[in-house]
Amino acid sequence: METLSKRSASDVTALLKAVSDPTRLMMMKLVETNPYCVCQFVEMFGMTQPAISQHLRKLKQAGLLKENRSGQWRFYSMNKESIHATLLLDILSHIDDSDAQLQALRAKEKPVDCI
Amino acid sequence: METLSKRSASDVTALLKAVSDPTRLMMMKLVETNPYCVCQFVEMFGMTQPAISQHLRKLKQAGLLKENRSGQWRFYSMNKESIHATLLLDILSHIDDSDAQLQALRAKEKPVDCI
DNA sequence: TTATTATATAAGTCAAAGCTTATACTTTGG
DNA sequence: CCAAAGTATAAGCTTTGACTTATATAATAA
Asked: Count of A–B CB contacts within 8 Å?
């Protein structure tokens, strides 16, 4: 874990690019507290499965996500060992938990079995 | 000044989009401490004047910059009254001051009169 | 006033980003 | 083994973004 020292500007830019998309920012806010699988995100965001997978790939390539396979499902959660974790958590902490978009997403969350 | 309360997700996304470009992130890091005019940035970044102006326009439209006219020059500085100021300062604080790119830019800084 | 300097804006180009549909891969259940 | 479900990847389309050149605007200097 290298969360205490400061980062190069290009490291910071890479993180910002990864989360400057509204879908991906919301994804990171959601996985901050719980893991989600692709099919859950598909339901919550109302996007096609490839679109969701492509966003998750970008976040994973930026080192922000951990992947956990369980049966047919792949669960994604925040990689808190990322060199970006401190800054990312800082950014996410500025988002109001009562944000309408965020609450709308959470309202659509379903347990994996029921989908 | 509304820097204490939390922001909507779309507000945060707007800020992140504004500073997720390497040139604009550096600009904000620079104007955090000093005002700069367009011609100084042109020298420092080695970009054309319209390219610099267009980046500055984006930052201004996001509410991150204050503009101060002095003679033929327009000086830009950080708008610390922006609703984004707290988060922006947080982000900038994660950039190492000894970052090579940043130091290279500062090395090219010249007083306005001498350009 | 006229020329010069600083800056903004407009229009066009090219590459990147986000989406779509189609298809491949992987795991589970019969 | 075979079908179905979950996920990834490939290819194509469309929009956006960062740049370029050309031009307009504004302030100063001669």
From this structure: 92
